[in-house]
Amino acid sequence: MLYEPGDLRLIECERPKAGKGEVLIKNEVSLTCGSDVKSYIRGYAKHTPPYNIGHECSGVVAEVGEGVTKFKAGDRVVAHNSAPCNECYYCKKGIHCMCENLITNQLKNGGFSEYQLIPEIIVKQNMFRIPDDMSFKQAALLEPFACAVYGVSQIPVEQGDYVAVNGCGPSGLMFIKLLYLKGARVIACDKSKVRLEAAKKLGAYDIINIEEVDDQVQAVKDLTPGKRGVDSAVEAAGSVKVWEMSISMVRPGGFALLYGGTKAGEELIVDTKLLHYSQVTIKGLYHTTPLYVNQAFELLKMKVIDEKDFLYNEYKLENVKEALMNHHEGNVIKNYITYN
C-alpha cells in the first residue's frame, strides 16, 4: 500500500472472500509499470493515498462467488483493472473510458498483493481465461497493451506516414510495434540505450538519443521529407515539456496524441499561431475501453508483442520497491513480481 510518495508498505490483511458475482484470484505474476513508478516517487493526480499501486497481473482462480459461471477454481486467468458501468451519459455515448462510475480494482487489493478480488462488473466485461500456450507473464501485459491498442486506434495513421514516438518505455514500445504494423515509418526518441535498442527491434525505422541532439524537435523534423515534420507524434513520457515538443514537431495539418500522464496542476502552453494556422489536432488520451481490452487480448494470443521483449528482472513482493526503482533507472523495460 502506498501511504504517500516514497512510503510504500507491505501489510498483512485477511484474505478476501468472493461475494456474489466476484472472483478471487491468487496472483502468480505482477508487473511494474511507469504509472506505478510515478505514483511511488511523486504521487498520482487521480488517487488519494493510501492505495495499492499494482495493476498488471495474472493468476489462478482461488474462489468464485455465487452466480459466477464463466470461471471456476483452478482456471488460469487475467483481469483488466477496470470496467465501465454502461449506464452513464459517457457510456451511452460510447466513450467508455470517461465512464462516470468506472470501477477500478487496483486501489484496495490490486496487482501487488497475493490475492486479488475482482468485482462482478470486471468479471463480466474484462476478465479472460488464459490459453494453455500463453504464460502468466504474457497475459499480465494485457492492461498496458489495451491502452496502447486504444491509443493507436485514435491516430489517423496511414501506410507510409512518418510518426514520432517520444518516450520508449513499455507503452511507447507498444505504440511503436502497433504503428509499425500499420505501415508507419516510426521515429523513436528516448535517452536510454536499452529502450532505443528495444524500439529498433520492435519496428522503429529511425532512433534519436535525445541526449545526443541539441534540439529534439528539429532532429525529428530533419528525418522527414523537406523537414516538414511528422504526420503524427505520440507523447509517451508523461512530461509537459515533451507534450509541447510533440505538438511542435508535427507538420501542418498533423496530429499529436498526448498519452503520458503528468503531475497534478501542470499546464500546457501551446503557440496559438501554430495551432490556428497549421491546423494541428491535439488529442489527450486516458485509459482504454472493453472493446480494446478484448482486441489486446487477441493480439497477445498472436504474440504481436512478446513478454521476452518487455520483462527483465524477477523480484519477490517484499522487494517491490527495488523492482520499481530499477524500472525507474531506465535500464529495463519492465520488471516482474512472482509469488511462488
Summarize the structure in words.
- Keywords: Metal-binding, Oxidoreductase, Zinc.
- Belongs to the zinc-containing alcohol dehydrogenase family.
- This is Alcohol dehydrogenase.
- GO terms for molecular function: oxidoreductase activity; zinc ion binding.
- By secondary structure, the protein is of the alpha/beta class.
- The protein folds into two domains: 196 residues, Alpha-Beta Complex (Quinone Oxidoreductase, Chain A, domain 1); 130 residues, Rossmann fold (3-Layer(aba) Sandwich).
- Helix 13 links the parallel strand 16 and strand 17.
- Helix 6 packs across helix 7.
- The longest helix is centred in the middle third of the chain and has 12 residues.
- The model has no long low-confidence stretch (mean pLDDT 95).
Number of strands: 17
CATH class of the largest domain: Alpha Beta
- With helices defined by DSSP (H or I, 4 residues minimum), what is the helix count? 13
N-C termini distance: 21 Å
3D shape: globular
Total domains: 2
- The CATH superfamily of the largest domain turns out to be Medium-chain alcohol dehydrogenases, catalytic domain
Find the CATH topology of the largest domain: Quinone Oxidoreductase, Chain A, domain 1
Structural class of the secondary structure composition? alpha/beta
Describe the biggest sheet?
7 strands, mixed
Helix content: 25-40%
